[in-house]
Amino acid sequence: MASQVAVIGAGPCGLAQLHAFEEARRAGAEVPQIACFEQQSDWGGLWNYTWRTGLDEHGDPVHGSMYRYLWSNGPKECLEFADYTFDAHFGQPIPSFPPREVLYDYITGRAKTNNVRRFIQFNTAVRWISYDEKAGKFAVTVQTRDDGRTRTEEFDKVIVATGHFSTPNMPSFEGFDQFPGRIMHSHDFRDAREFAGKRLLVIGSSYSAEDIALQTKKYGAHSVTVSYRTQPMGFPWPAGIEEVPLLSRVDGSTAHFADGTARDVDAIVLCTGYQHSFRFISDELRLRTANVLYPGNLYKGVFCLGNPDLMYLGMQDQYYTFTMFDTQAWYARDYVLGRISLPSHEEMAADIARWRGRLAECAGPFDEIDFQASYLADLHKEVDYPGYDIDLTRAHFKEWEHDKMASITGYRDRSFSSPCTRTIAPVHHTPWWTELDDSMATFLGNQT
Q1: Side-chain half-sphere exposure of 408, counting CA atoms within 13 A
Q2: pLDDT at 446 over 80
Q3: Is 260 left (phi over 0), alpha (psi -120 to 50) or beta?
Q4: What pLDDT, in 10s, does the model give residues 123-144?
């Protein structure tokens, strides 16, 4: 068993990993020394909201992409911790689509139950990770950001839990250099009210494009034009939101699109995704992948094919989030504890190829939901993570996809049942489209 393990990041993935080790310790297992390094001053990862954009107070790129007025865009029942239910945390059933403050409270609430905070070194940035094959050790260089001091420590295993939604992908279009308004990536989007009364252009067709278009219109944007590269999202948008083909150029304040149409805009938000960026990891260990449901060089979606003692959590494109991170963390833990043995390099490569082949056959969202649910079920077979109804979450996701196509402004007003407790969520007291207060107090305090 490894004697020293480094966990990089204290967001949902890192907290899941610390929780997994503590659950094993509580059950009587001998657990190695754990050191978790977190660049931010508090835990929660992307859910640790900050007003800052660009660089933080220490001169590092701001990690967070969270914005005010964000509500869950999927049923909370599909991300419910099997060992820490929403009912248990809040002491009552809550609606299926909580705002960010509520979800942050839930994530950190479980972390507090095992006091995993004691393993986390905050304001400590990992600057470099390398591997010494002769010694069989990882060298992890960290910097305490308050005083700028650096040090290097050795570890037997390293678990990268930094997420991959913090380094924006920034395309450029002709005329951007002369555009008189603001151009920003969704990574820097914070408050929808900034665009009240403005004509906004959103570029992209991802979840962030969908939600930022809705958020800005909800909080008073004059109009929102959504420009897509390949195909429109096709939702029944409310008045004032329209989809058009890809932007071709900008001439002053006028945006021109591939179909020959044009319109004047005041601001542009690039919802163009994120890069998997691990500049702090040596070249031979660094994960390189697009945002896909099964990365090409991670066995079980976790173990670096070139060096399985380096593990990555949460690097997939995601329908499932917290429960997937949990299951990956349990699997990684059991490898560290010697409960799981990995096959040969060739067998691992063949297993990755089988999953990638299955992914290539997916024809749409329903197939992708089934694919990722099957991936979770595969991990579950090998670990003692508490059971929950994965098939129910699979059905919930498919119903959710249907709900969005029926009403993009109303799908958050639906309720779902818990895969852990079978509790049916109450309907929120105010329709999401007209609820301008996203505080936890309002969300929890006025239920019907």
Answers
A1: 20
A2: no
A3: left
A4: 999 999 999 999 999 999 999 9
